[in-house]
Batch of 3 targets.
Target 1
Amino acid sequence: MKKKGILSTCIILAIAIAFAAIAGNSFYQKRHFVEDIVTEGTNVTEVFKLSRYNKNLKGTVGDTKVYVIKGEEDGGSALVLGGTHGNEPAGHMAAIIMLEQLKVTKGTLYIIPSINASGLTHNDPLEGSPQYMHFTTPSGEQRVFHYGSRATNPIDQWPDPDIYTHTSGQSLSGSETRNLNRCYPGIKYGTLSEQVAYAVTKMINTEKIDMEIDLHESSPEYAVNNAIVAHERAMDVAVGAKVELEDREIGMRLEPSPVKLHGLTHRELGDFTDTYALLLEVGNPSQGRFRGYTDEKLVLTGEDPCYVKGYELGLLYVDYSSGNFPLSLRVARHITTIDELIASYNNTLDDDGRAIQVENWPDYEEMVNTDDLGLYLK
Ligand SMILES: [Zn+2]
């Protein structure tokens, strides 16, 4: 009887060790997977690390790459942030496609595709999310990118406090301390998330960046969806873009940045720098609470019968009559909105000394209809 007990204990222990080894290997691979972002054959003029603006980031996973596309003619500048929330892949992919495709003739574009690089190295617990996204380029090469978490990896920032107190005095639940978009304007010697936020604020002030656009996605049942969220100083720029987008039958709501909601880019970068601070949201069924089985296919197609039902019941803030919301559509919305924001910004200038001229924008209709982002990757 005793022998039998020891045997079954050993079997259970062996199974547990096997599961732990498989999971551990998976976590290890995800943690160390480096995305291959191509600069060869692109118009990128410089790549540097974010620690240029906060030396404390040196040697940490938060020391992410900044890609610069500088035009031959001097002009204004814009900063695009992708990957603030790793579980919102449209912003991450839009930033990568922009840096691999766009050409600047006047002014400078700064693109950071993985602004919370730590958040991309893991997944949100208990969400069943995929770890990666796969695309095939026109030359037949497979490119693989992270699907990550909303929050900084606890390996890099732990433990969370019971209550997260922002520098403004605002209190949030403890886990929000690892939400980069609650950490602006940042703290030089703070947590990793605060140090990253500080570097962005410092970068905008140092480089005198005229416009900053932070790319996000949100659940279709969330009210701020397919929206441009604008700091009050950036409202004219946002209105101009919205009018042009409407003309192209691309509906984007306009949301003023709440004055008392602290830590977010559209509030703090607008308050603590002279930049026009803007944030874009597009609807993403793969991160919503109604969603069913969550795999890479759902992330890429946004096709979910649960959301079809939700739409029929009038519970969504987006038009889900198509029954899908593909990543190509979500990325096309981001990129085209940035195109219109830059055009609108140029229109607000008294003279074109600080204008930004960008070429090679992917065509909106084409990107939506081809439904294959691999075609826009090098
Ligand atoms: Zn977000």
Note: Residues 2-32 form the longest helix (31 residues).
Target 2
Amino acid sequence: MIIGTWQSGGSSWKTVSTDTAHAALRHAIETGHRDFDTAPSYGDGVAEAALGRLLREAGVSDARVFTKIPPDRLRRDQLLATARESVERLGRPVEALLVHWPAGTMGCEPVPTEEIAHAMLEAKAQGLTRRIGLSNHSLAEIQDFERFAPVEAAQYAYSPLYRVIEADVLPYLRGLGVTPQAYSPLAQGLLAPGPRAPIGEGDHRNWVRLFKGDLLAQCQAFRTTLIEAYGEQDFSAVVLAWVRAKGLSPIVGIHRPEHLDLPQRARTVTLSEEEVARIDAWGAPLLAQVDGQLSMWG
Ligand SMILES: NC(=O)c1ccc[n+]([C@@H]2O[C@H](COP(=O)([O-])OP(=O)(O)OC[C@H]3O[C@@H](n4cnc5c(N)ncnc54)[C@H](OP(=O)(O)O)[C@@H]3O)[C@@H](O)[C@H]2O)c1
């Protein structure tokens, strides 16, 4: 179970108080969590700086931190400078450095794959990261990158409500022996416990497919089905266990100290093959509707 820090960056999540999110991170460290996902783009360095400071204050030296290179920092010199800044903020080399989004996405200039892959290898050779990898890249983009460098880590949107990678990316990564990390395993709150507040103005979820129109109604119906089957107390832990049963490591985005109870509880849940198949079947109608899009935004 990996602790996600996007919420600790503030800005994109209108449900979050940054101070409380940092208190949650402190609590995660104090209760023994050692795997953390972050990125320079989470509050423009705010999440990385907070995580680095809290790890230093706690005297923790054995944390494994995963971070990323934004798509507007993919030229060789930018990539290496960005990786160095992350390592400085975090106060340690990272466990894995990922290309956050493919080159040329989000209105950024395209950069040749060869340049990106070689710069990632340089970052590794300089001791900034132990492994290199990709996030949000299609199978063709993974294979293109592999012409120049190995893919040693990977991160994708994945939950019972968002299973696009099952078509080709997931089996391919399994073949490489890479355990992908699943971000948004709780579908950004749609499958989290407790009453759900309406999404406020300026919250990035206003642009997430699952939070729109008919799809939102279907996600809510799926949530109700899970609650009927497993109860209000346990259904979110079942969701995280389902992700693990599929062979991925869930990254849970927390922003309150009490949120840490859920990943703890999820560790004790194991699902039978029949239960996994039953949840698959409940979510199957949603699969068709996200139309093969790896990105949840759009
Ligand atoms: N590689 C990438 O492109 C990428 C993209 C997205 C995320 N990530 C990483 O993955 C992490 C997780 O993904 P995510 O944050 O998008 O989605 P998520 O983990 O599915 O959902 C996080 C949201 O679920 C709610 N939540 C979580 N734990 C809860 C609990 N115990 N009780 C009640 N509500 C709870 C909160 O919703 P409310 O805010 O409504 O309270 C929280 O903001 C991020 O923090 C980030 O590190 C990576």
Note: The two ends are 28 Å apart (CA to CA).
Target 3
Amino acid sequence: MNNLLRNVTKMVLLKRKCQCPECGAVLSMQESFDENNEINVCEKCGQKLANRQFAYQGERFPGVTWFCDDCGTILNTQEGFRDIYPFYRCDKCGYLNRITEDEAFDSIEEKREHRKKIGG
Ligand SMILES: [Zn+2]
Ligand SMILES: [Zn+2]
């Protein structure tokens, strides 16, 4: 119902090890992982991960990956995305996403809890 809710995970890819923040799998060990890909998908849990090399790393929320609430696209890799804006319109679907601190979560677990609380 509350589709303003942000899907955010901290980027573990910031670390050299390239671990999935969702399940902890080592991505560099996975066959489909390519450090030249803009986005990699964890083979184990399906979590989408923006490549640090290409993705915008954030100013207000360094290291946070932002996903579009509507289509699930990673916003960090879109041209023109900056987390200093209160809102950002997704290039792909045109959805207006809220970029605020209370929408940023340390983990997917935390995000799920938050969703439960607000009934979304
Ligand atoms: Zn994973
Ligand atoms: Zn979108």
Note: Confidence is low (pLDDT under 50) at residues 1-16.
